[in-house]
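2024-03-11 09:14:02 INFO worker-7 job=invfold-0412 stage=load source=structure_tokens
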């Protein structure tokens, strides 16, 4: 209903609601100016060093809770109307990583929160901020996924096998490639025992080769 009222795509409204709820610490359905400022800085401002321009915090978007409690607040409907009115303001651009996550979640039919969680893992191991992961970074990432403390705990053959799955014939993998590889092995949701599952899949893939070699 709200999506229709403000003429914003339903999936976008749902994603905005997730962002709004993160800063609604009390679950009251309201944000004060401080919480709203934090929401804008986190979700939209390209340069996080800049403060939120006061023009984006105009009182017309806020209502007093009561005369006895003179706190200016905004509810989610008010936030949607603010978003619609300010979408193309120069200072207000949804950060690129949020846009990437949102677009990929929609394209592959995955939940935004799950793709965002997987993206945080990808960014953590993209040590040179190249927006891709090279083989050396992938090795460290695989160790994390398998719970290995040292790279020597995992064979070089297995590293190469997993890399060939993820990268195919490229020299580095972007986030979409990693997302498809990750969800292919672990699914979309966070689970326990993922490392053991990946190891079982790997050794199962070797079994036909071993049987063939034995037959020869």
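2024-03-11 09:14:09 INFO worker-7 stage=emit residues=216
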């Amino acid at each position: 209903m709200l999506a229709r009222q403000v003429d914003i795509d339903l999936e976008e409204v749902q994603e905005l609601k997730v962002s709004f709820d993160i800063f609604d610490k009390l679950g009251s359905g309201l944000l004060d100016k401080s919480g709203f400022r934090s929401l804008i800085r986190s979700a939209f401002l390209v340069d996080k060093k800049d403060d939120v321009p006061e023009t984006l915090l105009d009182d017309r978007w806020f209502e007093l809770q009561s005369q006895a409690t003179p706190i200016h607040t905004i509810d989610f409907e008010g936030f949607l109307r603010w978003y619609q009115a300010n979408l193309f303001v120069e200072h207000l651009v949804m950060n690129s990583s949020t846009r990437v996550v949102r677009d990929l979640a929609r394209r592959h039919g995955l939940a935004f929160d799950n793709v965002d969680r997987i993206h945080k893992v990808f960014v953590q191991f993209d040590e040179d901020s190249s927006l891709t992961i090279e083989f050396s970074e992938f090795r460290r990432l695989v160790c994390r996924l398998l719970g290995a403390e040292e790279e020597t705990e995992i064979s070089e053959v297995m590293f190469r096998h997993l890399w060939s799955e993820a990268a195919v014939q490229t020299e580095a993998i972007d986030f979409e490639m990693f997302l498809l590889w990750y969800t292919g092995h672990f699914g979309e949701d966070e689970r326990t025992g993922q490392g053991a599952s990946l190891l079982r899949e790997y050794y199962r893939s070797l079994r036909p080769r071993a049987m063939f070699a034995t037959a020869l």
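2024-03-11 09:14:09 INFO worker-7 stage=report msg="Residues 2-94 form a domain with the Recoverin; domain 1 fold (CATH 1.10.238.10)."
2024-03-11 09:14:10 INFO worker-7 job finished
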